[in-house]
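Please think about what follows:
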Amino acid sequence: MSVYRDTGVVLRTQKLGEADRIVTLLTRRHGRIRAVAKGVRRTSSRIGARLEPFAHVDVQCYSGRTLDIAQQIETVDAFGGKLSRDYARWTAGQAMLEAAERFTENEGDPALQQYQLLVGGLRALAESDRDPVMVLDAFLVRSLAIAGYAPSFSDCAGCGAPGPHRFFTIPGGGATCADCRPPACAAPGAETLVLLGALLSGDWEVAESAAPRARREASGLVAAYLQWHLERGLRSLRHVERDQPSAPGPTATSA
C-alpha cells in the first residue's frame, strides 16, 4: 500500500456506511481523487469539519484497491466559513466546485492549472470585495481556456480577421466577422466583448469599469458557451444571484 501526501480542495462529499465519508478532492499533484475518510461523521471526530466542501487541506492518503484512504488532514485555508456568511459568494463558489469537477473528468490525471485556478478563485471570493458573479465568470472562462476551449473575444474565430467584431457564435468559438457569421448568432455590445476579454486575461481594472448591462450580457454568453462545451449546464448556476433581466442566449439575436 503506497502512501502519498498532497494539498487539495474538497469538491464534494457523500456518506459511506454509518460513520465514514467519501471525499472528492482536486489536488495539486494527483488531479481529482476520491478518498474514504473513516469515522469523520462521528460526533467525536476531530477532523470531520476539515473535510467539508470549500476546504483547502493538506492530506495524507493511502492507496487502496478501489478508493484511497485519507488520513492526517490539516487545514490550509478554511474558505467555507468565510463564504457561508454571504449567499451570493457561497453560490458562486458552489458553481466553481462543480465546474472544477466537470473539467477534471479523469481521476488521477494531473490538473495543476485547474487546481491553481480554483484556489485563486475561491480566495478571491472569500477575501476580496470583487463582484462574485464576475469572479465566477472569470473562473469559468479561464477553465474553458485550460480545457482547450478558449473563446475568441476579438479576432474572428473563423478566419482570424482582426477585431473587434459585432457578432458572437457559441458553436463557432466566439467573435466572428460578418463574412463568417452563421445564419443565427448573438450580437452583443462592444463593451461586453471587451469585458469578456478582460476576464480572460485578468485585467480587473477594465473588467470592474464595465456597465451592469455588459456584465449581465457577458454572464449569459459565458453560461451558454460553457453549456455547449460541457454538453449540459452546471446545476449550481441556477442558484447564482445575477441581475435581471438575463443576457440573451447564443442564438437569441438573428442576423
Summary: The first helix runs from residue 79 to 83.
